[in-house]
Design brief:
Length: 255
């Protein structure tokens, strides 16, 4: 008899996953992946924009990989992740070259269009570090269902671009690490004050990259609380009965 299994850092839960190509309005082909629940429609969609590619950020950066590995099964959330222009990962290399959050706005818009063309629920945008600047600078024109910013550095985003978010009413959630070496909670509250509805959540003990399973779960719980609140918090086990129905939990090192 199969037993319940604890979900760990490298756990990969069942989902329908497939590689995709996102084609931008300026003719670039971006490498990506879509992961959706097995046998059920998605209740929400998360479009993920990764950290700075010139410093190792990519679609496989650990928080985004764990979102794709867990959230379709645990929260019925579809997860799209992709390499922005010029970015490489194990899945391949996207066309183009790094554009310091300018051209990456086209990448984000094309990923959102892919989600809508596929008939998935209107996307929430998750930007992590550099990805949050891409979301803040360009996402307001995409009318997202909501926005989650993880460790936003506000390196490329101007106060004027922040103020544009007052034109929308969708949720704007900022996950700020207590020990961030770029933007800590007190400064984040000051800088996001130009968007009064921006909600600041502090990741106590976390650093900029949220390294460690306890911090990764903080981020995933925050995502599920907003996108699928009736499925929060994220479970810490994969039950034996679901493994029989939907498939076993695998380990990343085994794939």
């Amino acid at each position: 008899m199969r037993a319940d299994e604890a979900i760990r850092s490298g756990s990969v839960l069942p989902a329908l996953r497939r590689p995709i190509t996102v084609t931008t309005s300026d003719g670039l082909n971006l490498v990506g992946e879509i992961a959706v629940p097995v046998g059920r429609p998605a209740v929400a969609t998360l479009v993920c924009v990764h950290p700075l590619p010139t410093h190792g950020g990519m679609m496989d950066s650990h928080l985004l990989r764990k979102a794709a590995w867990r959230l379709p099964a645990l929260a019925d959330i579809a997860v799209l992740r992709f390499n922005t222009r010029g970015t490489a990962s194990a899945a391949g290399v996207s066309d183009g070259s790094f554009d310091a959050s300018d051209g990456e706005g086209e990448d984000l818009a094309s990923a959102v269009a892919w989600v809508r063309d596929a008939g998935l629920p209107d996307p929430w945008l998750l930007g992590w570090s550099f990805g949050s600047d891409v979301v803040l600078r360009h996402g307001v024109d995409l009318n997202p269902a909501g926005v989650i910013l993880v460790s936003p550095p506000l390196r490329y985003t101007s106060p004027e671009e922040l103020r544009r978010w007052n034109d929308l009413t969708c949720p704007l959630v900022c996950l700020i690490p207590e020990l961030d070496d770029v933007l800590r909670p007190a400064e984040a509250r000051e800088r996001f004050a130009v968007v009064p509805r921006a909600h600041i959540d502090v990741g106590f003990g976390a650093g900029h990259l949220w390294v460690g399973e306890v911090y990764a779960r903080m981020v995933l719980d925050a995502v599920v609380e907003r996108l699928a609140p009736d499925r929060a918090p994220v479970p810490g086990i994969w039950p034996a009965d679901r493994a029989l129905r939907e498939g076993p939990m695998e380990r990343w090192s085994d794939l």
